[in-house]
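Our working data are protein records whose layout never changes between entries. Instead of coordinates, the fold is spelled out as a row of discrete tokens. Here is such a record, shown just as it appears in the course material:
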Amino acid sequence: QVQVAESGGGLVQPGGSLKLSCAASGGTFIGYYMRWYRQAPGKEREFIARISSGGTTTYADSVKGRFTISRDNDKNTGYLQMNSLKPEDTAVYYCQAAGVWGQGTLVTVSS
């Protein structure tokens, strides 16, 4: 059974960068989309980005031009590079792959 685990969250100042990782274990996510979502306090979970197994990407307007999604199929790992972070990017970030959700990693953007 595939399991997914995010890492790389933390506290960063506005304008800073973070790179999140999403590691799949217990199987492969080749052939599946990998998606990133986030949920800010008091708000619904929202879609951020997705990447196909072949590398085709889609972004939410709120992160387009600042975030970059990528994946390494050999390592069963996906990534979310986040640049020019804003306080409104503060949220728990979740990865979904092969229909499986990770536990989330907290990103806090604050001075």
